[in-house]
Every structure is written in C-alpha cells, then in structure tokens.
Amino acid sequence: MKLGSKTLVFMSLILLALIVLWGFYYRSVGESLFHLEEDYLKDDLRRASNLVDLSLESIDHRLGDWAQWDDSYDYVRSPNDDFIETNLNNDTLPLLNLDLLVIADSSGKVLYELYDTGEGQCDKEFFDLNRKEKRLLTSFHDREMVRQSGLVICGNNSALFVARPVLPSDGSGAPVGVILFAKFFRGKIPDFERQLLLSVEVGSWQDESLPEDMELVKGFIDLGSSEYISSDRENLYGYLLVNDWLGRPGVIMKLTKPRTLSAAERDFFYMLSLFVILGAAALVISIFFFIRQVILRRINNVYSFFSHVIQTQDLSKRIICCGKNASSKPLYGYDELCSLCDNINILLSMLEKSQKSVLEQADEVVKINEKLLEADKLKEVLFSNISHELKTPLTAVRAYNQLLYDGSFGRVNKKQKETLEIALRSTDYLNNIISELLELSRFEAGKANLFFEDVDLQKLIKETIREFDPKLREAKGKVNFSCPKGFVVSADSLRMKEVFQNLISNSIKYKDIRKLMIDITCSYMKEGDAVVEFKDNAKGISEEDLEHIFDRFYQIDKNVRAGEFESTGLGLSILKHIIEAHGGSIKIESALGVGTTFRMVIPKKASFSNHS
Questions:
Q1: Looking at 258, 278, 300, which one is the last position of a domain?
Q2: pTM of the predicted model as reported, rounded to 2 decimal places
Q3: Count of domains in the chain?
Q4: I want to staple 256 with a disulfide (CB 3.0 to 4.6 A). Which of 149, 151, 199, 380 is the partner?
Q5: Beta strand 199-204 with 453-456: parallel, antiparallel or unpaired?
Q6: Tens digits of residue pLDDT in 567-586
C-alpha cells in the first residue's frame, strides 16, 4: 500500500473515530447528567425520610411536657373543666403546630379531644379506627413502654402522631392515661417543601382516588423497593413509601425536582458538540489534502529517484526537487524536504567517493588475503616442522637423560642425579608445551579431529575421578559427584575426558590449606542440553585474573614454571576450545579464598561443522 493510501486510510479512521466518539459522548453525557440528577434526587428522598423522623421527634418534644405534668396527671385522674378552660382553647393547636390533641384514660376512653376543623373532619374516623385497634391508646400499662409514634391512617387521610403515658412530674407511679399529639400528613406538605426546596405531595396508600402516577408506582413498590424514580424532559419524580405505625404501607410521598438543564439548554449543548465534531472532521480532511499536495507528491519524486538509482546502480545521478532547476517550485519556499534532497545529494557524492575507495581497497584486500593464505600454509608447515624437528630430538634427549639417570652409562652421584632430574622435568615440560601448542593451533584453525559418539558422562567422569584417586588422597581431597544414570551426550569421549582431567588437576594444584572439596553435578536444561557444574574450594581466582583466564600462556601464579606444579598456561584455553568445538559454552565464577565454579553447557546434539 502506498504512503498516500495509508495516509487516506489513517485520516478516514480518525474521522470515523471522531464520529463514534461524538456518538458515545452524546449518549454518555446525557446518561451522566441523568444519573447525576438521579443521585441528587435519591439524596432528597433520604432527606425526606429523615424529615419524617425529625417531625415525630419534634412532636414528641412538645408532648413530653404535657405527658409528665402534674396538671395533666390530676385532670386524667379527676376530669374537670378548670384544666380545659385554662390550658386548652382554639389557639392551643396553632401554638403547638398540631392538628389533633387527644387525652384518654388508661382504659382507652377519650376524656378530651381537640382538632383543627380547618383541615377537615378526621376525628370520628380516627376514633373509629382506635376502637378497632385499642393498642394506640391502651398500650402503656407496662412502665417500659415510653411512647408510641408513627404514621396513622385516617380513612383517606393520614397523620403523624406521638402518644405518651400520663405520669406525675417526678415520674413515679403507674400511668393513668394517654396524651396523643398528631399532625396531618396529606396533600401538600409546606414544612417539607421549605426544608427540601422541592414540591412535596403525599397520597394515602388506601386512597382509591390516588393520582395515576402514584397508583402506577404502587406496583413497583410492591416488588420490594421503598423508592422509585421516574422522569420526563422537564422534571424528575421521586416516590417514597412511608409505612404506618404498625409497619403496613401508609402513604406515598412524591418529590418533584426540576431537571438541572432545561430541554433547550441540553439541545444547545448537544448541537454545540456536534458542530465541534464536524469542525474537527473538516480540519482532518484539510490536513489530508495539505499533506497530499505539499509532502506526499515530493516524497513520491524522491522514491522514484531512488528506485532509478537502485536499478541502474549509478551513483552519479542527483535529485532536484527545489530551486531553479526543480520541475515545480515549493508551495512554501525552502522547507525540510528541500533540505532532505540536498542532504541526499551530499550523501550520494560521499557514497560515490566511498565506492571508488572501496573498489580500490578491495583489490588490496584480495592481494593481502592471498598473502595471508600463503602465510597460513607456512604456519602449518612450521608447526609440522616443530612437531617433527623438535619433538624427535626432545625424545632422544629425554631417552639419553633417562639412561644416564638410571646408571646405564655408569654410576652417578647424588648431585648428578638431581641435575638429571631437573633435565628430565624440563624436557617433559617443553614436550608438553609443544604438544599443547600444536593442539591449540588445530582448534583455532578449525582442524581439530573430533570423533562424535554417544558418551555416557556419568561413566566418563567416574572413570576420571578414579584415575585421580592417588593424587586426591595425597592432597586430602574429596569429590562429591551427582549425575543421573544414562546422562548421554553426543561428544568426543577423549576430548571430554581431557576437560575433566584438566579441571581436577588444577583444583589439586591450587588447593589451599583447607581440605579440598570438589562438587560435580550434571543436569538437563529445558531445551535438552546438558549442563555440568564443577565447583571447588581451592585458592580461587582474582577478578583481575578472571578476565584473562582463557588466554594462551596465562598463569595465575606467575612463579609456577617448573617444579612441583608444572604448567604451560594452555590448559584452560584448550578446555574452552574443546567445549566450543562441541557447540557448547563455558562460564567461570571465582573469588580469592572461596573457590572456583565452572559451568559448562553441552548441546544435546553437538555441532561440528568446523571440525572433522
């Protein structure tokens, strides 16, 4: 797909994303506004429920003084007109903010009632109800019963009431009667409207003439919820069920809350967001045409130029996209693309010069390689001559020294014998250096002879350990060996044995005053490759020496040349080449005074592409 097509697809996706985003935004904002207003209305419903409780508390507070007043106590015990004339008149209920006052004796007989006739006739219905349910006025024989309160239904009307037992001011003695205060709870509730700043209406659950919306809400409230919310474009409506004093459905309280944003305001908000999205879409389209006209066309010219250069491999060509020789002038003068073209021309000039230089150097490299091949052949001849010309005389020298040492040419004294011992060790040391150097050179040249076969490392390592038993006993050393049975790898058995001989020998050579401990463990990796870990507690290697430990002729103890521990400094270098010739790897960790750990990974199927 061309860059222009990709740009078109990308811009189309941006435009589509903007449209989807606008639709999602349009929907989510509307839902968010509704849910936010709904949450506010739920808070108002909870406040309305609390106001019912607060209203009962307020009535109870006013009733407390009357119920525990000696004058009230005396009146109930002995009814008289003086108490009525002195304390009860037409101004009593407005002063107490009540609609109904009832005084009854302990049997439930009403001694006095006072109600607000302006609120409607409810007294007879109320008393008829209480003749059926005497508990309202006769439930205070038990001193623990402090009050009765709640909502009482009066036919199609309802009231909030509080009833308290009549007691003397000191609280002693048994209740002699009951005083009940009530306030009608129906229709519009001005006190609640002032508190909630909302329109509040109350309808009785049993009222057959309930408004249609309240009648409909009764069905939802019957399902178990005490609240219900509905809405239209202008208002939210919250409905709250208030149970009567016996726990039965009493009244439905309706709160009307105007929507925060009017329909016109919401429409304006949505139209504004739509215009923003359309403006963004127009901007995206304009950007696409600008990119296509000003950038993509010239990029296509650069692409065509490079295609031509690649096909012809002619670095002498130059691109012209700006300036006097350009086929079309830039729309906005000299810009970054013009600078890019100039830099491309500079780069082409440099490449042209480099190409000429590379061709010249290539000829020189060919000549040098020919000389190196000749030198490599000479090197092989040299090592072959070393093997033949040095090892053969060394063998003869050693043989004659051994004969002298054994007394084959006559008796030798003690001093002569010591001298011959030094000569024999030095001859062996030199012979060992020549052998290992030849072996290392074969590995470095990729001409080492490896004979791959299935090798059981468990048996091979055990055999190697047994060979070192005398030296281990002499060094007071111990080998802990852990390897599963049938631990088979594809390897050259002689070379692998040489690896473990070298490691065990080094541990014995460089042991410290501690008892030598060697741990050898074998395991498989997830890929199936074999892992052998060799760990000892010998002297250890310093961090400085670790960097060169696999270098040829490098020795940790520079004084070890001949004597008790003869070392050529080639053993670990050869060991590393053996492991790598099997396609494996070796890592080393060590610290002075702690010991050394070698971790060798040997592939399950060895790679021997560079070795025969």
A1: 258
A2: 0.43
A3: 2
A4: 199
A5: unpaired
A6: 667 788 888 888 888 889 99
